[in-house]
Write a structure and sequence with these properties.
Chain A is of the alpha+beta class and about 350 residues long. In chain A, about 40% of the residues lie in helices and about 15% in strands.
């Protein structure tokens, strides 16, 4: 089913409202999901909304929670998410630390007991568009094996960085896994084989069977370095907030467990005025650098997502038929007059 | 020539003293270099000292400068390094922001006009051993080509993260280049060919000739993601401090130009007490995870460097004969009575 972003938002907001999510929170959660679909990150798009609704109905996600804030120190906001929706808890915290970073130069929010954030790019881009630098990381269920190891011991632990620039900010948002578990499931559905080196099976042997990889583990991106970076992010999160770690992490992919991972956001206020111009000039040089024959132009982080978004705003976004049908039915169940 | 760490320190301190570096600054600069050799990172070891001495003699490095400090905001220290020695300027700044982080929860130092830092691991490990979390990044001359690009447009931009743990901290220190330019030069000296995919020649064509790669560019690690991370770090540094960017960066590898790159250090005070134990338990689980047949045990970032250091403390470190002879001669020239 191809729908416009507006239709997608309306239906998502309606479904969330039916589940008891207040209007502003529903708008925010819907926005983060639809923006992921617009950028082509469908694994973080509306596909996730049925599970969010199920988690609310089972009491695993609290529809009205925004998080309890405690300033552990003037620049360090400790947030107990109270099982709230990830974007709702995160944006309430970001509002606080953005103000604090303007006063102090930087500030950090460490969050636990909050649900899945969705696409991190959305948060750091919004910070960068407001003139500050945003850094975000979070962890997931253990899906990635250590370099040289046989079993999943760390999450796909993404790192996102948003930095002001013209005409658009630099927006990095990268998983530290070589591929996503969503891609493994997609390959399994389509009967495609994985590339060698992408995954191990449940016993730790290399496999190109997507079905076997579903119960196994994904390789880290970039070999030993990517493994080390992903592990460092897991430990960074676990050092700053009472997050579960490694194989104990639950609740970002299921509808059975409270979400026990942590999130870390850092906002920096650029100290040197006037750095946007030289940085933007440099990014322009990078974009114009010669490319290998027949290749596309060099992209700066965020460019590809922006191009996909512009196209999807014109052409609409693809939502799986059963997902759309379910969301429409849920959304309309609370609006008997329509 | 194989020398003990003590001999290496003594000679390095002597050579720096001869060049007019005050005792404590000389001890610090020598320590950072010798510790790199001890960990097997010879490209950041004593090999660099002759160039540091030459830079001092040419007025490109100021032997007594420690940096001018200005608090741009309570948690944001802006440092004009005054062309001081990298470790001297950095440690003076780190002393300030470590105290500030204990008060505010976190603090940042942004540094410009300072010389080469050497191995970043040294800084973040010292922060972690003092119970705080350290994050460090810096940039270099453009040596790495963008993903899909043909020319070097960004530095090897390392990222280092140190996090308290028992028995030893996690210490990540990774370049965002696939290999170092030092390795390219080493291969060229030995007449070895590079692996395919490691480098491009000066015209942007793939090459396995180390000689051709010396004037070309290195691939980013981890493909598009590693490129994006390295670029984000370059822009992060350039947004926070008046650093040159891309092909305009000079002075970390030569004896002809002022060093015009920037450095960024962040210190975080863990907000949640008692997280060292669960984090350390998790790292223990990672180390004990099953490995692929015949592989070595899984390492946590910092483990390998620590093993190499322990061995080198027993067996000594290798220093190239001409480097050692030059340093000894320089060190002794100021000590006529010995």
């Amino acid at each position: 089913m191809r729908v416009t972003a507006g239709e997608a938002r309306t239906v998502a907001i309606g479904a969330l409202a039916t589940a008891g999510v207040p209007a502003e929170a529903a708008r925010l959660q819907a926005e983060v999901l639809v923006e992921a679909d617009l950028r082509g990150h469908h694994s973080h798009g509306l596909l996730r909304l049925p599970r969010i609704l199920e988690r609310i109905s089972r009491g695993l996600a609290a529809p009205t929670a925004v998080g309890k804030h405690r300033w552990a120190a003037p620049a360090m906001l400790d947030v107990d998410g109270g099982d709230g929706l990830g974007p709702v808890v995160a944006m309430a915290a970001l509002d606080r630390i953005s103000v604090r970073a303007r006063q102090l130069g930087m500030a950090c929010a460490v969050i636990h007991s909050s649900n899945h954030l969705g696409m991190l790019a959305w948060y750091v881009e919004s910070i960068a568009r407001a003139g500050q630098i945003g850094i975000a990381t979070t962890i997931s269920e253990a899906l990635v094996h250590p370099w040289g190891g046989r079993l999943a011991m760390q999450g796909t632990n993404p790192l996102a960085i948003g930095i002001p620039a013209t005409p658009d900010p630099l927006v990095l948002d990268m998983s530290t896994g070589l591929i996503s578990m969503g891609k493994v499931h997609d390959y399994a559905l389509r009967g495609r084989r994985l590339e060698p080196g992408w995954a191990l099976d449940a016993s730790g042997e290399p496999t190109t069977s997507a079905d076997a990889a579903k119960t196994g583990s994904i390789a880290p991106f970039g070999g030993a370095k990517g493994y080390a970076l992903g592990l460092a992010l897991e430990v960074l999160v676990g050092s700053l907030t009472p997050s579960a770690l490694g194989t104990a992490v639950r609740g970002t992919l299921d509808s059975a467990h409270p979400c026990n991972k942590g999130d870390v956001f850092i906002v920096l206020q650029p100290a040197s005025p006037g750095r946007v111009t030289p940085v933007s000039d440099y990014l322009g040089q990078v974009r114009q650098t010669p490319t290998a024959p027949s290749d596309t132009p060099v992209s700066v982080p965020g460019d590809g997502a922006r191009r996909r978004r512009e196209q999807a705003l014109r052409k609409g976004i693809d939502v799986a038929d059963p997902v759309w049908a379910q969301l429409r039915a849920t959304a309309q169940s609370s609006q008997p007059d329509r």
